[in-house]
Amino acid sequence: MGLFTPFVPYHTSAGSSTIRKFGGLLTVEFLEPPPGRSFMMRQTYRLDVEGPVSPELRKLIDSPQRPDGPAMHFHRYQSEFFHVEHGICVAEVDGVSRNLTPEDGEVSLPANRIHRFHIHPDSGEYMTVLLSGSDAGIDNQLDRVFFENWYGYWHDALLYDGGLDFIQKLQMLDAGGHYTPAPAWMPFRLFFGYWTSVIIGRWLGGLLGYKPFFKEYTTDWEFAVTKMKSSFWTRRSVENFWAAKERWDREADLSAGPNPTNADLQYLLEDVTAATRATKAKAAGNGYSNGFVENGEVSRADEETVTGISSGLKSQTAQVRKR
């Protein structure tokens, strides 16, 4: 991807309640959230992927960028809830690490706490955690639209683009109310982390034509478009034509009528391979035209009409040649 070039997805995962990224290293199952929660999902991180994998995936698994959990971040408006179902989850909050296991039950994390979590090396083959977040009732918050797009982009960018685009990353995270804090040595880490994402991701990214959500990743695209249109910075990147697109059942109804023909141009719009010609010849030999209408059923009036059209075409052709 070139400099300041908006990202284009490499794969499609819209419409999937369970998505798998990085060859199964990360599996996300979206669940119906309970009242007062904006999302709920079951995440499974694996320490390794069984079986043969592509060189690109093996290189990623063996690198420092290996997907084992989100990077350090904070949520400005939402609290998060964790419930480990299998394995050991390392939760680091404000610089203090804690190992979470199924025996700990659900653990809550208030908004504006700097944190991350990842799979513990002693988890066995995998770690599964049930995640949910409070519903702040705002556009820029954690929800299924955000996670579908973030995990889709994370997968494609690391495997096929060589890394995350800084502007694209900040814009997508800002759309989910998910912010990267400033370095530990800086004061006001939350303040600078938030405004860096807003200025570079939301404002600059919007001016350059970046967008936080992609139809290829998003199940509820209408909701995603509504969210993007609510922002001055992203509404210019949203097209409107998609809403007028016919659904398949409507397209099937529209296609049920007679097929269009193109006079003497029709020949090159049909299958002219030897196999098709043989099939048509056999059908004609059995007394059928196009496999449906018997030649013997063509009326005298139809024959005269066809003869007249043919004579007219020949006459017009002769006149053109004389000119």
TrEMBL record:
It comes from the Eukaryota. Residues 307-323 have a biased composition (Polar residues). This is Uncharacterized protein. Residues 303-323 are annotated as: Disordered.
